[in-house]
Amino acid sequence: MSKHMGIVAALLLSVATPALAQDAAPPTADTVVATVNGTTITLGHMIAVRETLPEQYQALPDDVLFNGILDQLVQQTALQQSLGTPSRRDALIVENAGRQHLSGVALQAVVTAAVTDESLQAAYDARFKDATPQTEYNAAHILVDSEEKALALKAEIEGGADFAEVAKANSTDGAAANGGDLGWFGVGMMVKPFEDAVLAAEVGKVTGPVQTDFGWHLLIVKETRVAAQPTIDELRDELAAEVETNAVTAHVEGLTSAAEVTRTADGIDPAILRNGALLDQ
Q1: 255 assigned to some structural domain
Q2: Which of 62, 178, 223, 257 has its CA 20 to 30 A from that of 240?
Q3: Up-side HSE of residue 254: CA atoms within 13 Å toward CB?
Q4: Is residue 155 part of a domain?
């Protein structure tokens, strides 16, 4: 056969190869993609790695991801083999990691079943069925370093000076630039002495001086309103976390109470957990 005929034959073979591959059985999770000193790596191993990758890596082109994962598994297998028999410490860590993963899988099914539109609505209704309307306050203040100065400024305001202008000129906190405006807030958002003064204040009237750890305050409540109840959509993530926690707690307690558990750790000093040398014995 001439040199050129050999090239033609090679080209024909390369063209025919895909057709032969198409006739082969489709790959499965058990399909072996590599062996390392006799240890097999399967397509299932690769898929499992891909599913645990961060989203940005899963977005890589398929060929880049395929080759990268296969290289990683080959390298990891070779490294694993280089250790020989794992130490007791390493074997226990691997065992614990497997237990942790599988327990997480078990709980994910519980969470998925628990968090539904109906359970979120029930949690929302339970939270607000007996809730009393809450008042919010729109107030401003002036903060100074002494009671004497606060009283002097209060006299100026009662004599006709504008509260906001006095705040801009004299207040020592960050709200001064906005005339001492604190915006809207509810109960529990301010330090106690200040909050008590706000609750007792008459709308539109200067109150104080009030002492807190920050200094001496004059304050004025500009208006009040009934706080709007948050919608279920605004609380969806918070409610979902609450439902998840309750479902997981109930499920775990139910499983462990039904299991035959024998605890034999009585009498062991808890400080022994610090003794890592036991794993080397």
Answers
A1: no
A2: 257
A3: 8
A4: yes
**CATH code, 143:** 3.10.50.40
Cα separation, 97 vs 93, whole angstroms: 6
Q: Note the pTM of the prediction, 2 decimals.
A: 0.60
pLDDT tens digit sequence for 88-143: 999 999 999 999 999 999 999 999 999 999 999 999 999 988 888 889 999 999 99
What kind and span of H or E run contains 197?
helix 192-200
Pairing of strands 181-186, 32-36: unpaired
Instruction: Tell me how many helices (H) and strands (E) the chain has.
Output: 10, 6
Residue 280 lies in a domain: no
Q: Is residue 277 part of a domain?
A: no
Nearest to 181 by CA among 196, 191, 166: 166
pLDDT tens for each residue of 39-76? 999 999 999 999 999 999 988 999 999 999 999 999 99
Q: What is the DSSP letter of 133?
A: P
In the chain, the amino acid numbered 280 is D
